Amino acid sequence: MRTKEFLSQLDHDRIVRAIKDAEAKTSAEIRVYLQRGKLVGDPVAAAVKRFHRLGMQKTRERNAVLIFVAARSQKFAVIGDEAIHQRCGEVYWQYVVDLMREHFRSERFSDAIVDAVRDIGRVLAEHFPKRAESTNELPDEVVED
Fold first, then answer.
1. Which structural domain, as residue segments, surrounds residue 7?
2. Exposure of 67 by Cβ count < 10 A (0-12 exposed, 13-18 middle, 19+ buried)?
3. Number of domains the chain contains
């Protein structure tokens, strides 16, 4: 599928609602980044680079999660900052990637991202429940570049 077609099928409003709903139960942050044009060899390396460019490592509890999708390369990755990674580890990130892959194969692109956000939100709420002093440290919108 062409990049333009993929991007046109995404329901940004639905994804943002899922992020807001997930973050309502946790002190953690979830971001979705869609890379349009550049080809990506290693999606995890690209995700780490984008994570830092978005300043996600600066959250107070180091518990931000990035869903990175390279549309043109048809690759994606899910990574978390050090505090959440210590609790969930690589096995969990791979589980989320596998969950997304099934939706992508069926061309249910918004479902892939929304279901990933919901599952990540559930896990984040277990490890980093919302507290009175919790604030939304990062924007919720889908970032496209």
1. 3-144
2. buried
3. 1
What is the block-wise mean pLDDT of the chain (145 residues), using blocks of 10 residues?
71 96 97 91 96 97 96 92 94 95 91 97 96 91 92
What is the structure's pLDDT at 27? 96
Distance between CA atoms of 129 and 59, rounded to whole angstroms? Answer: 15
Cα(76)–Cα(64) distance, integer angstroms: 17
- Is 77:113 a contact under the CB 8 Å cutoff? no
Sorted by sequence, the CB contacts under 8 Å of residue 59 that are 6+ apart come out as 28, 29, 81, 137, 138
Phi, psi angles (nearest 5°) of residue 143: -100, 130
Tell me if the pTM is above 0.70. yes
- Sheet with 75-80, side-by-side order of all strands: 75-80, 64-70, 29-35, 143-144
In this prediction, residue 2 carries a pLDDT of 65
